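User: what does the whole thing look like in 3D?
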Amino acid sequence: MSTIRIPPVLREETGGSRTVEVRAATVAEALDELFARHPELRQRVTQEGGELSPFINVYVNDRDVRYRDGLATEIGPDDTVILLPAMAGGAR
Amino acid sequence: MSGDGVREVGVADAVALARDGYRVIDVREKSEWDAGHVAGATLVPLADVPARIAEVVSDKTTPLLVHCAVGGRSARALSLLAQMGYTNVVNLKGPISQWKEAGGEWEEPPQLLSPLQTRRYSRQMLIPEIGAEGQRRLLDSRVLLIGAGGLGSPIALYLAASGVGTIGLVDDDVVEESNLQRQVLHGVDRIGMRKVDSAEKTLHGLNPETRVVKHPERLTADNVERLIAEYDVVVDGTDNFDTRYVLNDAAVRLRKPVVHGSIYRWDGQVTTFVPFEGPCYRCMYPTQPPPELAPACDVAGVLGVLPGIVGLLQANEVFKLVLGAGQTLAGRLLMFDALGTNFDEVRIWRDPACLACGESVVQAPTAQSAVAIGR
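Assistant: Here's the predicted 3D structure for the full assembly of 467 residues, as structure tokens:
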């Protein structure tokens, strides 16, 4: 099983879960399985047409999939998919 | 002057012995040595005597004149040397500060630091990557903090304590009671006071030498270049995306390194953006997300210690940028999960298509910066 790490700003959509385990061969498959379980995440993570939202970065382990094969990037059972939206939280 | 090899002399006699060819061993600390020392002397701090003296003086019959500041540490060095078999050792009992007056030759480096500074910063100057020169760099450095709140508080406190010479603060807020849980620059008696004024008061109490420059305004596209132009490093502790993008684009134009921190509930992120050497914020997130994706502390909540931890990681980046030491977080995003106590990092890359620093941007001539960029 691969692990998808849910960032704090998206945990309401997963009912508080910090990680979701999926069986998938690519990032796209992993996200499909994630969205099947937590449908509200789809519109936060992808745009119309299924491309990744520009406001969220997806990493496989420490590598940004934009610099690999995007949604087609292959993943193995020991890999971690990290969803990383821009985080504003700050100082005031 | 007995024959047992252990003798004590005053400063005038010691000067004469040094002229007669006695090897001068200075057992003070490096920071004391740096402030001035006997010409031709060798530095072996007292704690290092047992381990190092043999390589410095291999012949145990060599006539040695050992001194410290007033004669206490050198007396201890003498007993160690006697135990180790050194037979011709003289202790200088008297203030080494009179060496020059007594006609002895004295070497003083160009005065990097005042005696007060040398004392105040002695503990960090012992660190090889800092020393007197690094301390001078810190004292000459100018660091701008965007925000004097949660992240700005610990950053400002530690930068001031360690002798960063100029700290600029950009913040137009006043202190509120709900800030005090994490904004440790401020206290109960500061409620209602402008944060820049409260911060100045705290920082001056901590280090009167630090120059605090107050900018009681909000960072905008209109004032950003004026605000950051005079500084070597900018620390981003902002709470909103508008400011973050405005700051990023101006910092890239002016080639100012930006140390970025953000916090949310139990999670924090830190990285360092060094224009044209590493990615910038826009390389990570090309366009600004809509406001509903950016809940601030007052909506989302934040753990009190989190800005402390993330802020000090940012302060650490500032030190490395100023000192030119170590590896900064340029090209790496460090993530901290306080709930699980986990650190993690992902790599971030320069985006050739970046609107701020990508290939389409004509690179400005390198701005002369006082700051070395750690790699």
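In plain terms: Chain B touches chain A through 48 residues (CB under 8 Å). The longest strand of chain B covers residues 258-264.
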